[in-house]
Amino acid sequence: MSVPHTWRPLGPRIAGAVGGLLLLVLFMAAWFAFDDETRARFNVIQIGTLALLWVIGAGAMNALVRSRVVAERDRLVVVNGYRRRELDWAEIVAVRLPPGAPWVTLDLADGDTMSAMGIQGSDGDRARRAVRQLRALVEQPPNR
């Protein structure tokens, strides 16, 4: 496998995109379901609150969608939601995805563990293939 290589979860990306769109449709449908008199009683603060709720929901969905694991020549980049962490290949001891686990867990040389939400167990065979590829890179880093 050549690097750089990026793994992204399929299921959460679909759920995030559909969920964000459904949330917008729900808010818009609710707004247009009100009669003109009810809509006229909404003030700027109330409308702003509805918009803020949509932005918060869309932000949460976006956090799911942007999760990824990127294998580069000299490091592994893990993006979980809005948090990004870069690991040298030597820092990673093992890659685990036990049956029923939601996502990959990386065992680190310092004894800590780290979630890698970019490879989701719910993706089935796709996730198992990604784990095999990532394990191979951990065993034989591309920078050697």
Give the CATH class of the largest domain.
Mainly Beta
Order of helix and strand elements from N to C terminus: EHHHEEEEEEH
- Radius of gyration (CA) equals 20 Å
When the domains are counted, the total is 2
What is the overall silhouette?
elongated
Low-confidence stretches: none
What labels describe this entry?
144 residues; alpha+beta; PH-domain like; four-stranded antiparallel sheet; three-stranded antiparallel sheet; elongated
Strand and helix map with partners:
Elements: E1 5-7, H1 10-33, H2 36-40, H3 44-65, E2 68-71, E3 75-80, E4 83-88, E5 92-96, E6 103-108, E7 113-120, H4 125-139
Antiparallel strand pairs: 1-2, 2-3, 3-4, 5-6, 6-7
Helix pairs in contact: 1-3
What would you say this structure looks like, in words?
The chain is α+β, with helices and mostly antiparallel strands and 144 residues long. It has 2 domains: 10-65; 67-139, PH-domain like (Roll). The chain has helices spanning 10-33, 36-40, 44-65, 125-139, and strands at 5-7, 68-71, 75-80, 83-88, 92-96, 103-108, 113-120. The strands form 2 sheets. The chain has a 4-stranded antiparallel β-sheet. Strands 5-6-7 form a 3-stranded antiparallel β-sheet. Helix 1 packs antiparallel against helix 3 (44-65). The two termini are 14 Å apart.
